[in-house]
Structures are given as structure tokens and as C-alpha cells.
Amino acid sequence: MKIKSVTLHPFAGIQKQKFEFTGGLNILCRPNESGKTTLYNAIRCGLLQTTSLTAKQLTDVMGNYFPVTGGDTIRVDIELLNDDDKTITIYKTWKKGNRAGEARLILEDGTEITDEHEVQEKIEELLPVSPATLRTVFLARQSGLHTTIADMEEENQTREELGNVLRKNLMETGGVSVERFSELLDERYDEYFKNWDTDQQYPNNNRGIQNPYTKAHRGSILDAYYEMEQLRLDLERAVTFEEEMDALNASLEKLYGQFHEKNSEFEKLKPLKDGIQRRSLVEDQLKAENIKKENLLDVSKKWPVLEYRIENADPEIEKKKGKLRELHDERERSRNAAKAGELKRRIGKLEELLTKVEDARERLNSKQKVEPADIKTLRELESDIRKCKAQIEAAKLTVRISSGSKRTVRYSQAGKEEREIQVGSGDTIDETAEGGFTLISDDLEVEVFSGEGDLEKTVENLAQKEKERKQKLEESHLTGIGEAEKKAEEYRDAENKLKAAEYNYTSASGDDTIDGLRRQLEAYGTVTGVRPEDDITDEIVKVKTELHTLESDIQDAKDRVAGWIEKYGTNDKVILALSKVSGEIERIGNELENLPRLPEGFNTSGEFVRHVESLDTAIRTLERNISDKKIEVTQKQNDAPELSSEELRSMYKDAQDTFGHVKKEAETFSRVYGKSTAVIEQLDQNTYHGLDAAFMKWLMKMIPDRFSAIELDRDIPVQFKTNDDKVLPMELLSHGTKDAVAVAWRFALSEHFLGDNRGFIILDDPLVDLDPERQKYAADVVREFSENTQVIVLTCHPAHEDMMEGGG
User: Fold this and answer.
1) Which of 554, 707, 714, 748 is disulfide-compatible with 694, CB 3.0–4.6 A?
2) SS3 of residue 202 by DSSP
């Protein structure tokens, strides 16, 4: 089977174009984004993709191939040539919507097939290999070249198909036929174990009796298991049915019992119902007449009392009003007394504050006022004196006084008081002076100063400053700077206290004066002996309440008397009506004596009547329930299982025995199957030798002098031995080498799959990742392979096209 032509109208980015192919090498060289990938996808979809898709499937699978301009239809036509060079044409159309696509197949004899499923089945029959193998080996994209081997590891169908092809060839050429024997073993094993999980001892995929496999997908174990499980379910249903029937019959029997019980009581009480109902009516009349009598008695008693109350109400009301006037006057006097008391307290407070002001003023006047300027002057003098003394103390002198005879000398240090020193005959006295000293003996005065004259000036300055300080202190009547600061602080404190006292007085008095407040107090006069205003107010409220209650009671009495006059006329007529009501009560009592009395257990006639009526209602309800329950029993009986639980229990036991027997028989066969399979595997060891030879043939042509041998894991190359005896696993090969390996592997697989049949293979840029030298070798291999098989190469490299066409 070869591809003659492919027509796209439209598909993906191509509106309408036909691609024609020859039987050998076909190279489609175009720039990127110019239709190579679109052609590849069109061939794959035309051969393998169905057209009857749901809207979601269409979007997921074919959505990228619809025109970007918004069209809703894509089409692919493929012409195939069979081994006799007869044309077979495939027409496929995909439309947006739910299963709107169409498929058509024209066979070589002109026969046309339009059923979508039949079309796809026929296409897959015409293909030289299964769809899975076609995708994995014959239609790999450039991006999938180096993953061909990995894809085969995942695609079990392709591996199984390859094994069958190789094994068939081996057995035929060796003259040994175990294929049919192996098939019979598999069939027999499948007859026992189909869809039975031997590890779980349960159906595969947990498909128990509630979700069973169809008969065609069961082995004998699963059949026996389902039969056993079905009988178990039937037994459970039968037991449940019998239990439910027993419950229904018991329920029906209970309803009959309730019906007889209530009907018996109803028949007994029903004859009394009319008399008891009349008694209930008469009893209500008696109650009404008794109430009327009580009301008339109440009116006859209260009428004269209320009339007397109305006639004597005015003096009492006037007395309450007079009391209110007295209380209002008393409250006014209490308020004036409160105001006078408040004025007294305020005057006393202001007098107290005024006294504090006067005391503060006297204290201020008693303090000596020391001005800040005087403090400042004294501080400056003190500072100058300390500086002078520091300079003098910094220059110490030692004077040694020696005398040949006893004498007295006067000695003074710079800036200090003079003192006398007694010096004995032959004595020596040492004195230490700061800055300078003066020694006076008889008519001799010696002054000594440290330095060259500045210290003398300092000493003079010190004396002058001390003189000024002394004079300042005497003028201010102070003993020192400490006293000055203390007196200044005391004066400030007294001054601040005076200001605070004056502020407190001003804040408290506001615009008022003590004399003005005293005049206001005199205006209230003497107010004594009054109660607190709250007590008076409470009494006012109390008297007002009493007055209101009295007035309301009188008005209510007037209203009630007026109503009685309107209703009865006079009190005498009330007495007459009372007499009539008493006569009616006596008559009703006589009637009650002749009516049936309530049965024991009932307090009122109404209670009795309601009970009889409830019995009647309950009896009718029970009749309906009995009828419904009978229908339910009849319907339940219609659903009765054909077999009783006892019969099904026996059948279930037989099914359990059968299931055990089938399992035991299957397990025996399983051991035989295992032994036979092991023997077949020994025969199958050489199945893949031809495959590795074909693979090495093509690989050596693409990569000469690189590898000496390969190791297969059955049908998958796993290791490569180099000429220098290094062993490389597949994953350590370079990207370019993997592509070369993939091409050689696909050629080897293609030879085994196709055999003597014609076929095609599509290569997408097979040279792109190879170095220049290997590109030449690979180009020669592609050209050689195309001599027996149709090769369609998709590339965007003109140089590759030239190499594969033999141009160097």
C-alpha cells in the first residue's frame, strides 16, 4: 500500500492544494510554516481519525485544523495504490456540530462505502500494519524521531504485532509450528480466567454482580462466580420478600384487631350521643343563665352603693384640691429657702476666698524683694572671685623663715587675712602660699608674687571683687548669694500664691460682689421650718394621683349607673329580672334530671361527643388502611419469587460447590499453562535475532566504524557496544546519534512489518540534528531504503534535499 496523492480543501492553513507522490523517494522541501506539518497531520487524520465526533471531541482533536477565517468544514482526500497499482480513494470531512462529519471510501473495484465506522474498519484492514504501529513507526514527526524507541516501550500493541511477525517468520523457516498450540493454550486459559483477577480472587476492575461483564467477556470461573452471586442475591431477595410478607400480614392482623376494638366501643356509646349532645346544650344554657343571675345580683347590690358614692363625692374632691393648693405654696417657700441657703453658702465661700487673698497679700508684703538684677550682679561677682582664686591657687610658693633670735613676723597669703608667726631662735618654719605672700618684720616688708606681675594684678582684682560683693550684700541687707536666692524664691512663691488666691476669688465671684449677694439674701427674708422640696413634690404627686383616681372612680360610677338606667330603667326592674332568671334556672335543672348522664371517665358532654366522633373517624380510617394493606399484600404477592428461600438456599449451595470445582480445575490448567508457556518461551529466544541484524545493517551504514554490537531487551535496543569495547546505554547517546538510531530502527522495523508487501514511511527532517558527515551517510541510507519502500521526506533544508536526491 502506497500513497498516490493527498488533497487538502481546506485543512489548517491550506485552502486547497493537491500533493502527488511517486513510488520511491518523495521529498517535500519548503520553508517553515509553509505546510509540511499540515500535510503530515492531514495524512495522519485521513488514515486514522474518525469523522463522527461530538462537539467537544471535535474541538479537542481537530479544533486546530479549522481555518482561522472562521470556516466550519475541513476536508482531506487520500488516494492509495494497492499491490496491483489499483487506486483506492478516501474522502473525509469534519464539520462543526455534533457528529456532523462524513467519510467515504471508493475501493479498487468501484465499490463505495459511506458508513463512517465501516469506512474506518476497511481502511485499517487495507493498512499493512495496525493503527498503533503506523503511528509509532511509519508516521513519526521530527520531534518524535529520537523517542521512537521510548514510544514502542509504551505501545504494547506495536510490540505484540512485531513479536507475532518475527515469531511467524522464525517458526515457518525452522519448520516448527507452535503458533497454533500457543493460541490454543491462550484460548483455553482465557476460557477459564477471562476477566478474573487471580490475585484478588474477584472479577477484574471490581465488576461484581451489580456491574457484570457480558457473556462474551467471561471465563468459566467468572461464569460460575456470577451464577453463584446471582443465586445469593436471589436468596437474599427471597428471604427479604418472605420477611416483608410476614410483616405485612402481621400489620394487617393488627389493623383488624384495632378495628374490632374501636367498633365495639363505638356501638356501645353511639346510642347515648344524642342525649349527651342535648345535655351539653342544656348545660351551656344553664351556665349562661347562672352568669346572667350573677350579673343581676351584682348590679342590684352595687347600684345603690354607687349612687351614694356619686352624691357624696364633691366635698371629698374639693378637699383634695385644697390640699394641693397648700402643698404648692409650701413648695414655693421650700424653693426660696433653698435659694437663700445657696446664697449663704456662696457668700461664705467668697468671704473665705477673700480672706485668703488678704493673707497672701500680707505674706507678700512681709517678704524682702530681691530683684533679679541684684542676683545676677552677685552671681557675676562670685564667678569673678572664683576665677581669681583659681588663678592664684594654680601658682603655689614655699617660703622658709629662719631666725637667729626669737621674733614675731606678720605673714599673709595673696587675697587672705594677715596672721602673726612666732619664730624661735634657730627655728626654721616652712609656709606654703598660693600665688604670692607678704612678709613683714620690724621695718621690713617683703612681697613676693608668682610670675612677672600678672598674678599681682589678679590679687588686686580679687580684693576689688570681694570688696564690691561685700558692699552689694550690705546694701541689700544680705549675708550671701545663697540667702539672696532664697529670699528671691520666697518672694516669687508669695507673689504666685497671691495671684492664685485672686484668681480663685475672681472665678468664684464672677460679676457678683459679696455686698450684692448679701442684698439678694436680705430680699428673701427669714425662711425657716420648711420641708425639703422633694418631700413636698412626692406628696403633691400622691395627692394628684388620689384626686385623679377619685375623679375617675366617680366618672366610672356615673357611667355604670347611666348604663344600668339605659338597660334596666330602675333598680326595682333589676330585682324583677333576677326573679325571672331564677325561674328559668329551675326549669333547666328539671330538664337535666331527665337527660342521660355522662359515662364514667368523661368530665363534660363535649368531651364525650368528641370521643364518639373520634371513634367514628378512627373506624373509617382503619377501614381504609385495611383496604390499602390488602392491596399492598396482593401487589407484594404478585412480585413473589418463583422459588422459595428454602429452594434457593439449596441451589446456592450447589452453585458454591460448582464455583469451587471450576476454580480447582482452572488452577490445575494454570499450572499446565505455565509449564507450556515456559517451553514456548525457550523456543521463542531466537525470535528477535533477525531484528538486531537488520538494525545493525542500517545503523552501520548511517554511523560507520562506531558501534560493533547492540543488546536487545526482546524487541527494544537498550545498550550499544562501541568499537573500543565501551558499552553505552540508550540514554547516554547524543541527540544526533539518537536520531540516527531511531531512523535505522524504524527502517529495520519497517522491513519486518512490511516483508514483501509494499508500504510507505514518512520522515520529518531526518538529517536536521546530524553532523555534516553523518548527514551524507543518512542521505544515502534514505535513498537506498526508498528503492523498495515509498519514503516521503518533509524538510525545510534545500541542502538536505540535494543530498538525499544524490547531489552530494
Assistant:
1) 748
2) strand
Q: Identify the band that residue 336 occupies on the pLDDT scale cut at 50, 70 and 90.
A: confident
- Write down the pTM of the prediction: 0.41
Residue listed under C-alpha cell 439674701: 521
Residue 159 cell numbers, joined: 510490540
Q: Which of 155, 123, 121, 122 is nearest to 137 (CA)?
A: 155
Query: Is residue 738 a contact partner of residue 720, using CB atoms and an 8 Å limit?
Result: no
pLDDT in tens, 725-742: 888 888 888 878 888 888
Instruction: Determine the distance from the C-alpha atom of residue 687 to the mean position of all C-alpha atoms in its chain, rounded to a whole number.
Output: 61
Question: Taking a C-beta distance cutoff of 8 angstroms, is the pair 277, 609 a contact?
Answer: yes
Distances (CA, A) of 98 to 94, 101, 117: 10, 8, 16
Q: What's the CA dihedral at 628, 631, 636, 638 to 10 degrees?
A: -170
Residue 194 DSSP SS3: coil
Whose CA is closest to 134, among 80, 84, 190?
80
**Tens digits of residue pLDDT in 270-309:** 888 888 878 878 888 889 999 999 998 988 898 888 888 8
Q: Which spans in 510-604 are helix H?
A: 514-524, 533-568, 571-593
Contact 7, 76 (CB under 8 A): yes
Beta carbons of 804 and 786 less than 8 angstroms apart: no
pLDDT digits (tens, 9 = 90+) for 175-223: 344 555 677 778 888 888 899 998 899 999 999 999 999 988 999 999 9
The cell for 302 is 352595687
DSSP states of 677-743 = HHHHHHHGGGTTHHHHHHHHHHHHHHSTTTEEEEEEETTEEEEEEETTS-EEEGGGS-HHHHHHHHH
Separation CA 148–CA 730 (nearest Å): 12
For residue 808, name the pLDDT band (cuts at 50, 70, 90). low
Residue 39: other Cβ atoms inside 10 A? 23
Helix (H) or strand (E) holding 398: strand 396-402
Report how far residue 739's alpha carbon sits from residue 747's, in angstroms, rounded to the nearest whole number: 12
Q: Which helix (H) or strand (E) holds 421?
A: strand 419-423
User: What ranges in 367-478 are assigned the alpha helix state H?
Assistant: 372-393, 454-475
Identify the pLDDT of residue 75. 96
User: CB count, 10 Å around CB of 532?
Assistant: 12
* H/E run at residue 243: helix 220-269
- Residue 170: which pLDDT band, with cuts at 50, 70 and 90? very low
pLDDT of residue 452: 53
CA distances (Å), origin 199, targets 185, 386, 457: 21, 114, 125
Q: Where are the alpha helices (DSSP H) in 270-371?
A: 273-311, 313-366
420: helix, coil or strand? strand
Mapping DSSP onto H, E and C, the string for 82-132 reads: CCCCCEEEEEEEEECCCCCCEEEEECCCCCEECCHHHHHHHHHHHCCCCHH
Helix (H, G, I), strand (E, B) or coil at 34: coil
> CB-based contacts of 175: which residues, under 8 Å, 6+ apart?
none
Poorest-pLDDT segment among 93-107, 373-387, 670-684, 759-773: 670-684
pLDDT, tens digit, for every residue of 651-660? 999 999 999 9
Q: How many residues does the chain have?
A: 808
The candidate with the shortest Cα–Cα distance to 450, out of 463, 433, 465, 431, is 433
Nine cell digits for residue 189? 486459559
Which residue is listed with cell 508487501?
757
Would you say 27 and 805 are in contact if contact means Cβ atoms under 8 Å apart? yes
| pLDDT at position 172 | 41
To the nearest 10 degrees (0 to 180), the angle between helices 645-683 and 220-269 is 160
Interstrand relation of 25-29 and 73-81 (parallel, antiparallel or unpaired): unpaired
Residue bearing cell 550690705: 474
Nearest alpha carbon to residue 619 among 270, 211, 175: 270
773-801: b (≥16 Cβ within 10 Å) or e: ebbbbbbebbbebbeebbbbbbbbeeebb
